[in-house]
Amino acid sequence: VLVMTRDITERRGYERRIQHMAYHDTLTGLWNRNALSSALASVLLDLDRSESSPKPKTAALLYLDLDKFKRINDTLGHAIGDDLLKVVAERIGGALRPTDLVTRAETQVDDPLARVGGDEFCVILTTIDNPMDAGRVAARIVEIVGAPIELEGHELVVTPSIGIALMPQDGHDPDTLLKHADRAMYVAKEGGRNRVC
User: Fold this and answer.
1) Catalytic residue, candidates 119, 129, 173, 175
2) What is the rounded CA–CA span in Å between residue 137 and residue 17?
3) Is 25 an annotated catalytic residue?
4) What is the pLDDT of residues 78-89, one digit of tens each?
5) Which residues contact 150 (CB under 8 A, 6 or more apart)?
6) What is the pTM of this model?
7) What is the pLDDT of residues 155-173, one digit of tens each?
8) Which of 14, 69, 92, 177 minimizes the number of CB atoms within 10 Å of its CB?
């Protein structure tokens, strides 16, 4: 009898790191756009299944952009800008309560939010009773993110503008939902910033 064994521990570690890199933002460790799209598709599938039930489910996508973030990057540098993004990501996560249920992506790890661009974040609220619930969560995020942040001797105040798209009312696929939430966020910016639309 000939027995051959091979230790694949190191290879499995590489595979896990590659999987993590495919679905997470390198700066904040949050989901990236790929993971967000996957999670949205999963939520939409669940919502479609619940349509025939006596009480169909509703979910929401919050699209958040930091107001005048470019000015901070330009005046204080990208290193402080990156640190600011990390603090904002932590604050958004801290603003979410256990009842603000979120979904999981193919990473199989519960995570409340995604960073989808330079200073853009998204939050998926999977089960809300009415649209006002999403508005209350967004208002809580605006309040918590808007508090002063101390970084390297600078006191920074950054405010978010948030757009909300409801599922399935505002779209039946991830791209449409993202487009509508992004548009709502721009309406919030055009209306004076630091607000929810």
Assistant:
1) 119
2) 32
3) no
4) 999 999 999 999
5) 156
6) 0.85
7) 999 999 999 999 989 999 9
8) 14
